[in-house]
Amino acid sequence: MFSRIRGRQAHMGGTGLNILKSIAALALMGVLALFLSSHFGSNGDARDLDPQVSAGAASAAVPEAPRATPVVGHVIADADLSIGREYIGKVEPIQTVQVRPRAAGQIESVHFKEGSVVSEGDPLFTIDRAQYEATVALRRADLSKAQASLSRASKYNDRLKTVDKRSISANDLDMSASDVQQNRASVEQARAALKLAEIDLGYTKIASPITGRIGRVNVTKGNFVSAASDPLATIVQTDPVRVSFAMPDREYMEQIKAFQASDAPVYDTTLTLADGTLYESRGTRDFEDNEMDSSTGSITLHLRFENKDGALIPGSLVKVATKPLESHVAPIVPQGAVMSDAASDYVYVIGDGDLAHRRDVTLGAEIGASREVVSGLAAGEKVIVSGLQNVRPESPVRPSYPVIGASKTPAELARESGYDLPAVGQSDDGNLEEGKN
Questions:
Q1: Residues forming a β-bridge with 363
Q2: Considering only Cβ atoms within 10 Å of each terminal Cβ, which end of the chain, N or C, has fewer?
């Protein structure tokens, strides 16, 4: 009984102690609030407690200007894009003749030296003529016989016409006139047979149909030949000659207007021989094939060259260097300055106040390490070529430009790639004038 009373008293004593602690805490907070209010006053500013806090809050009120991004710039320049290109060409004769016999018989003589140059009309072979001469004599005799018969029939017909009509019948006159016509036809037939015999006799002497170099003799003296025999020899024209080469369809389309305009030259063309010697004679335009080769996607062009010294040998390979006669001046931009998105190709142009502006461009041919600019840029404008990853539209940049001689220009890089791209107005040392901004 007494133990229960003591437990309740102890419990009630603990609860009262907690209540007293809570009242004391509330009183302390009220005193602290009163102290702060009286110390700072109604116009006080808590920021006066810490000068650093005050300065940071003031700077946050005024936004800091964005820093300029360091970039490398490039000045756009015009260049002559009429670049030369090289192809592998093949020397071909303009005319090639395989000498074949047109009359059958034994070869009696050969009149040329193998490998020599023969002129048109020079004798090459002689075939045994005896049989053909006899045939000509026989046909000539047949012609004489036919002419005699015609003469006799004509005279007889003339006499019948002069006699009294009553002494001869109309049938006799008709028969006489018919004999004259038949004998006249016989004369024409004999004359034609004689002509054929003379032609066959002429075929026994084989002459060169063109001027050129003749090759080896395939059939020598004493052999029997006929129209079905293999060629006796081959002659190729060596001056002038033709050089043919295949041009890719894309390059042909670049100059298609010039090709279709007229028969005037399109390229300035030179040849380099197999030993590296530059051929002195300049080529002239001959013709172009009338269709593309579907297997290679190219079209064959043919040029004509003089070959008086015989340096161009038919069948040999040469290096053909071509350069368009008409200039094609356009601005070029380094490929490193060009970026692309779903909309278009674009570059960052450095404008007034060194602000970067996005500019959409239309690009043309790839020229070494550069690209032709069809539209969107002009010579003299400045573009960013390095540091693009940190550039945003209308953001400030701090451009620097390569010192002359410290780096290679796009034109020099293009020339290293096998192209000749002198910038318009560029000096012979190949450096464009680029200064620091």
A1: 373
A2: N
| pLDDT for the residue numbered 403 | 67
The model's confidence at residue 144, banded by pLDDT at 50, 70 and 90, is very high
Decide: helix, strand or coil at residue 80: strand
Crossing angle of helices 130-162 and 170-202, in 10° steps, is 160
Residue 214 CB coordination number (10 Å) = 22
Task: Identify the H or E element spanning 19.
Answer: helix 2-40
d(CA 81, CA 88): 22
What is the distance between the alpha carbons of residues 435 and 428, in angstroms, rounded to a whole number? 19
Across all residues in the chain, what is the average pLDDT?
81
Whole-model pTM: value is: 0.57
Contact 384, 75 (CB under 8 A): no
Q: Could you say which of 3.40.50.2000, 1.20.1260.10, 1.10.287.470, 1.10.220.10 is the CATH number of the domain covering 129-203? A: 1.10.287.470
The CATH number for 70-81+328-416, chosen from 3.40.50.300, 3.90.1150.10, 3.30.470.20, 2.40.420.20, is 2.40.420.20
pLDDT digits (tens, 9 = 90+) for 157-177: 888 888 777 777 888 788 888
- What's the CATH architecture for 83-125+210-326? Beta Barrel (2.40)
